[in-house]
């Protein structure tokens, strides 16, 4: 195994170019795009019930249509990684944002489940493409400024989602789904247009990648440096970390409130508040992630985060006492908060946009497979026991993070 600089995997190579006065501007613009991503996606999510009613879809048919979002995202991520290398992360970010924001209006314009599936495939393409391009741009910026700020970008996505969901809830009784999603498309395209010019102007050079002999690539090598191939084993290990983390996020998003109401007998309002607390804990964890990573290092944060999430999920799944379950949800949110951003950054530092794409495909696959697998297990052994798989995979993410550290040594 070639020797790889651990700091290079975690944050950035020491040979990165000096900090420029333009990098704070670039960071703000990339942060804004992350928030826009979460805002638009949440706007769609809160109108799913209305769209379901408009196309007269059963729950099963709607589930198949929603899988098209995931299919579009996963099928797009690999090719988008190559497009980022060829045309640059910032150009692809703008193009993917246009697709995402423009297509969010389409689900409310169709009148059949087949039509809904087709437009959600387009929407998923924009979502997957934007996530790969944005994370690749973030990896390059992190390599330049030499601070582990990936968690703050993902916090912006979470805050954007919170804002989009809140606005959607307020508009749900005032506007039809078509009017609301049309408004989201207009706002998203206007924001993309406003952010595109400064994003393209503040170019961030591709981050140098480790070469086959373990040395850092020449930071002036441009696209060739971005395309340099890092050890695929480490990229896949980071992808496994992302998968385990995203499995837990997807499972709690779909099954957390049901566990609170059906198994712990909480009221609907308390269950909603419990999930909101989990979401806020994850956001708070990401907002504090940069300082924690700078102080303790990425491996310790991933391992300790997986341990906290494991303990929290064990308590939440097995305790019959509502306060303990709510506390467990908080621990899960705090524990998972920084694992996924660190995994994506590590894969991107090793192998550029291709590394981001590989880890994103695995991570998003975990988020897609988690909810149905939990449902299957719940039918066999009960929901509390099924949720123990979240604790198991959270623990596995910590083991995989240690394996990355050992393989890079």
What would your notes on this structure say?
- The chain has helices at 6-10, 23-45, 48-55, 59-87, 89-103, 113-145, 150-171, 177-201, 223-227, 232-263, 268-287, 289-296, 298-318, 322-336, 339-381, 383-386, 388-408.
- With 409 residues, it is mostly helical.
- The protein folds into two domains: 11-209, Up-down Bundle (Growth Hormone, Chain: A), CATH 1.20.1250.20; 232-408, MFS general substrate transporter like domains (Growth Hormone, Chain: A, Up-down Bundle).
- Helix 4 packs parallel to helix 6 (113-145), helix 5 (89-103) runs antiparallel to helix 6 (113-145) and helix 10 (232-263) packs antiparallel against helix 14 (322-336).
- The longest helix has 43 residues, at 339-381.
- The radius of gyration is 20 Å and the shape is globular.
């Amino acid at each position: 195994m070639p020797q790889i600089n651990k700091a290079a995997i975690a944050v950035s190579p020491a040979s990165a170019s000096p900090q420029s006065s333009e990098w704070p501007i670039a960071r703000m613009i990339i942060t804004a795009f992350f928030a826009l991503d979460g805002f638009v996606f949440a706007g769609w999510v809160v109108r799913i019930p209305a769209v379901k009613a408009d196309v007269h879809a059963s729950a099963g048919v709607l589930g198949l249509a929603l899988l098209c979002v995931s299919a579009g995202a996963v099928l797009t991520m690999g090719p988008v990684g190559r497009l980022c290398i060829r045309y640059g992360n910032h150009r692809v970010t703008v193009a993917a944002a246009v697709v995402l924001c423009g297509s969010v209006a389409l689900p409310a314009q169709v009148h059949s489940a087949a039509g809904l599936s087709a437009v959600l495939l387009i929407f998923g393409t924009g979502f997957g493409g934007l996530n790969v391009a944005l994370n690749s741009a973030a990896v390059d910026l992190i390599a330049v400024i030499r601070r582990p700020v990936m968690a703050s970008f993902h916090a912006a996505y979470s805050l954007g989602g919170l804002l989009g969901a809140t606005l959607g809830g307020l508009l749900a009784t005032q506007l039809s789904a078509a009017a609301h999603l049309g408004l989201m498309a207009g706002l998203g395209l206007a924001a993309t247009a406003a952010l595109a010019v400064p994003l393209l102007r503040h170019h961030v050079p591709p981050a140098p990648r480790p070469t086959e002999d373990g040395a850092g690539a020449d930071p002036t090598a441009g696209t060739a440096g971005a395309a340099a191939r890092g050890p695929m084993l480490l990229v896949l290990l980071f992808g496994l970390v992302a998968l385990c983390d995203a499995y837990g996020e997807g499972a709690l998003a779909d099954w957390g409130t049901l566990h609170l109401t059906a198994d712990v007998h909480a009221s609907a309002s308390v269950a909603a508040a419990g999930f909101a607390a989990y979401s806020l804990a994850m956001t708070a964890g990401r907002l504090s992630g940069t300082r924690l990573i700078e102080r303790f290092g990425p491996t310790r944060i991933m391992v300790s985060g997986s341990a906290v999430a494991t303990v929290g999920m064990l308590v939440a799944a097995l305790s019959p006492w509502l306060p303990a379950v709510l506390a467990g949800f908080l621990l899960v949110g705090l524990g998972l908060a920084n694992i996924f951003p660190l995994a994506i950054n590590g894969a991107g530092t090793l192998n550029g946009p291709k590394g981001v794409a590989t880890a994103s495909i695995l991570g998003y696959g975990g988020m897609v497979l988690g909810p149905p697998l939990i449902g299957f297990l719940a039918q066999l052994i009960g929901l509390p026991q099924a949720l123990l798989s979240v604790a198991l995979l959270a623990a596995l993410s910590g083991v995989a993070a240690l394996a990355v550290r050992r393989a890079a040594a």
